[in-house]
Amino acid sequence: MPAPYKLVILRHGRSEWNEKNLFTGWVDVPLNEQGTTEAIQAGKLLKESGWLPDLLYTSLLRRAIVTANLALDKADRLWIPVKRSWRLNERHYGGLQGLNKAESAQKHGEKQVKIWRRSYDTQPPETSEEDRKTEDFDGRYRNAGIEVPKTECLKDVLERALPYWKSDIVPDLKKGKVVLIAAHGNSLRALMKYMEDIADEDITEVEIPTGVPIIYELDEEFKGMGIQLR
């Protein structure tokens, strides 16, 4: 099918740890009440705009999965096929996971924490051995032979997400399917960087809102600019 290829990306609704201002990463936290409302509203926007997905891609984390289910239910598309992958998981924040962002800035300095949070290629400190053992025993990763990262920067996220983009998502787009990717702030920022050719130094300032569908009409190179549905 010729271009444009239609893609929707959707960051999960606001979570309980977003509310508490904690670094979340691969910790599997639920949506809060606001996040549930955002997800339902996202589905309403998809239905009203006519951007109805034929296929869903999502991560292995519940906040993305539940957001997608709520949105698709509202859009009357809960029946579409689903593909899930750890490659769409949120960035692993290493030793910062579970810590308060403001308290971390007080401890390490606001400048350093901003570098850890927003820099394209600087990793936070690695996760502790104790926390790593807990993650390694998580069935969704252990049973699939997935090695949980010790820490990641945005560059690392792009390097794990891009092969999946090329091997799975692009072929479905080529079939003319409207693809929905329900994922996370950083995994979606990584894909956005690739699709929109955003420079390393500029991606640091890009923020994706929770629960707002962003639509793309991609060209034959699978590049394009996103538009938020409001």
Automatic annotation (TrEMBL):
Signal peptide: none annotated. Gene3D superfamilies: Phosphoglycerate mutase-like (3.40.50.1240). Keywords: Glycolysis, Isomerase. GO terms for molecular function: phosphoglycerate mutase activity. The record marks 184 as: Transition state stabilizer. It catalyses: (2R)-2-phosphoglycerate = (2R)-3-phosphoglycerate. The keyword Iron-sulfur does not apply. SMART domains: PGAM (SM00855). The lineage of its organism: Eukaryota, Fungi, Dikarya, Ascomycota, Pezizomycotina. Substrate binds at residues 11-18, 24-25, 63, 90-93, 101, 117-118, 185-186. It is an enzyme of class 5 (isomerase). The keyword rRNA-binding does not apply. Its EC number is 5.4.2.11. Belongs to the phosphoglycerate mutase family. BPG-dependent PGAM subfamily. It comes from the Eukaryota. GO terms for biological process: glycolytic process. The active site is at 12 (tele-phosphohistidine intermediate), 90 (proton donor/acceptor). This is phosphoglycerate mutase (2,3-diphosphoglycerate-dependent).
